[in-house]
Amino acid sequence: MSTSALQNIPNNMTETEWQTRVELAACYQLTAMYGWTDMVGTHISARIPGPEDHFLLNPYGMLFEEITASSLIKVDMEGNVIGDSDYPTNPAGFVIHSAIHMHFPELTCVMHTHTPAGCAVGSQEHGLLPLNQHSLLIQDFISYHEFEGAATNLGERERIIRDFGEAHKRILILNNHGLLTVGKSMGEAFMWMYRIEKSCRYQLATMTGGAQLHYPDKATQAHAVEQGRKILAEGGFAECGKKEWPALLRQLERAGSNYAT
C-alpha cells in the first residue's frame, strides 16, 4: 500500500482492513476501466483477514468507477451489514460470494461479471474451446455451474462449491449467466478474470469469421494445458496477478483515481 493510502486510515479501523478496502476499491475501478461492468449489477468481494469472518461488498447503487475504500460495505457470513451505509448490498452477491468465502477461506477475493463475451461463451454448449494459446493455458483452472435463476437461494451455495471442484480451480463459467474468478489476492482474481475474458473474446472473434476452425492436435493441447499449470499457478514464472497488480495500481494512479479514499 502506498504512503498516501496509509494516511487515510480511519481511526476506528485496523490497517489490515483498510488495506483490503483499498485494494478492493482499486479492483472495482479497474473493472470499470477495462469495460467489464453491468451498470450497478455484478459484484466483487474481499475477505477481511482475521477470525471474524467478515467480508466487503459494493454498495448496491454505486457505479464501479465511483467506489472507494471508505464506501465499501462490511458484512458477516449471514449477510448482515456491519456499520452504516446509505446503500444496501445485492442479495445475489452475498449468495455467490459467501459460498466461496465460507468453503475456501484462503481465497480472499471473488469477482463476478456479466460481460457480453463471458455470457456468450457461457451460453454455448461446448463452453470455452481449446482454440488458442490463451484458452489452452487456462483450461485446467476452469469449472462450470448451471444457471438456476438469479442467485438469491442460499441452497445454491452448496452446488456452487460442488461445481467449483478442486481447490486449484480459479475460474467458474456460470452457464447462461457470466464469469466468476477467485484468488488468494486481489491481483490474482483480477488477472484470472482478464485471462478468461480475453479468451472468450478470442473465441467469439474466431467463430465470427465463418471459416472452419483449426485446433491444435491433441498432444499439443495437452502440452499447452500442462504448461499453463506450471506457468500460471502459485510459484510459476507468470504466477497470475503477482507481477501485474502493482502495475495496474500504477495505471489507476496515473489516471488520477480516488480509490484509496
Described by its quaternary structure, the protein is single chain
Mean pLDDT: 94
The class by helix and strand makeup works out as: alpha+beta
Broad shape: globular
Number of helices: 9
Order of helices and strands: HHEEEEHEHHEHEEHHH
How would you name the CATH homologous superfamily? Class II aldolase/adducin N-terminal domain
**What is the radius of gyration?**
18 Å
Low-confidence segments, ≥5 residues, pLDDT <50?
none
Trace the largest sheet across and list its strands: 4-3-2-1-5-8-7-6
Distance between the termini: 13 Å
The proportion of residues forming helix, as a percent range, comes to: 40-55%
Q: Can you describe this structure?
A:
The protein has 261 residues and is of the alpha+beta class. It has a single domain, classed as Class II aldolase/adducin N-terminal domain (L-fuculose-1-phosphate Aldolase, 3-Layer(aba) Sandwich), CATH 3.40.225. Helices cover 41% and strands 13% of the residues. It has nine helices and eight strands. It has an eight-stranded mixed β-sheet with strand order 4-3-2-1-5-8-7-6, with helices on both faces. The protein is globular, with a radius of gyration of 18 Å. It starts with a helix and ends in a 7-residue tail after the last helix. The mean pLDDT is 94.
Describe how the helices and strands are arranged.
Elements: H1 3-6, H2 15-33, E1 43-47, E2 54-57, E3 73-76, E4 81-82, H3 91-103, E5 109-113, H4 116-122, H5 133-138, E6 142-145, H6 156-164, E7 171-174, E8 178-183, H7 186-208, H8 218-232, H9 244-254
Parallel strand pairs: 6-7
Antiparallel strand pairs: 1-2, 1-5, 2-3, 3-4, 5-8, 7-8
